[in-house]
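Thread: FE2/S2 (inorganic) cluster complex, take 2
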Amino acid sequence: MIICLPAATIFVFVLSYTGKPMEEFEKLSRHEFLKQIGIKGGALFAAYCMGISMTSCSVEKGVGTDDDFTIDISKGRFRELSKAGGWIKVRNVVVVRTGADSFAAVTSICSHEGENRIEYRPQENDFRCSAHGAEFDIAGSGKNKKGRKGLTLYQVNVQNSILRITLPKKSES
Ligand code: FES
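Output below.
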């Protein structure tokens, strides 16, 4: 998990918490900085484990920043998609490997009440929202009353280990 704080927020925090100017902290290592602002012991260890970034804000490595993005299924947690039935959530999209060469991708934001709780169910080969039970088929169509509005389906193109996830552009009318 990466926690991103705007530089201005850090600056105000440093001044109000420590009374020291920001320039003093720019010369410190992250470890020293965390210690000086009072994060010690277990909290310091937890901050490292959580991967808190104090220097820059970035999205997950290998993932694009616009509506369309690519992921490399040979790397990291995306390797879950190298076997049929594997699925992941990334950038509010649920991506599923439905077969040897087939993939599906839908928004993870439920059309019922907007909860970000859509998950894939391998046994049923469908999607379900854990908030109130809306169900959707693999093409995003609603299967029950709460799922009647369906889910936005993304296009998935595969080239070697790279998946390109594309939000279909709305046609102009
Ligand atoms: S928000 Fe998903 S079922 Fe209600």
